[in-house]
Design goal:
Layout lengths: L2 E8 L9 H5 L6 H12 L6 E8 L5 E5 L4 H9 L14 E3 L1 H11 L8 H15 L1 E3 L4 H9 L4 H4 L1
Parallel strand pairs: 4-5
Antiparallel strand pairs: 1-2, 2-3
Helix pairs in contact: 3-4, 4-5, 5-6
GO cellular component, one term: large ribosomal subunit
Subunit structure: Part of the ribosomal stalk of the 50S ribosomal subunit. Interacts with L10 and the large rRNA to form the base of the stalk. L10 forms an elongated spine to which L12 dimers bind in a sequential fashion forming a multimeric L10(L12)X complex.
InterPro entries: Ribosomal_uL11, Ribosomal_uL11_C, Ribosomal_uL11_C_sf, Ribosomal_uL11_CS, Ribosomal_uL11_N, Ribosomal_uL11_N_sf
Length: 157
Amino acid sequence: MAGTIEVLVPGGQANPGPPLGPELGPTPVDVQAVVQQINDQTEAFDGTEVPVTVDYDDDGSFEIDVGVPPTAALVKDEAGFETGSGEPQEDFVADLSVEQVKTIAEQKHPDLLAYDTKNAAKEVVGTCASMGVTIEGDDAREFKQKVDDGEYDDTLA
């Protein structure tokens, strides 16, 4: 009766209650062990919804695969706002520093097509543009041009 369970859990804050507990209850795994391992692997995402897959076998053994939250969720978490702008080209909801963009790019890099942090950061900036988030006070498109011009090569190396 081996199987797979896929859930979204708040990073570092999974518990034996819903949505995880009811899914794991009928399985042969140690629920507390699964919860602890998920929390250990997701603590860097501190409260942000993280996709988690638990593969289990009949003998009670299990494997956990932790995904990366969507870029928009990481941006909202880092900038500290709830929803993006309805007019992202005119009404800005937050401002990120280059270091914050780099942090998000490094977290998201395994799921992106980018080869390096600089290009991963440009993908993050694209998400910022559609959410109404500025970077270092600049519109996301202006910031991306500065990155292309090499202005932030030292920081994003």
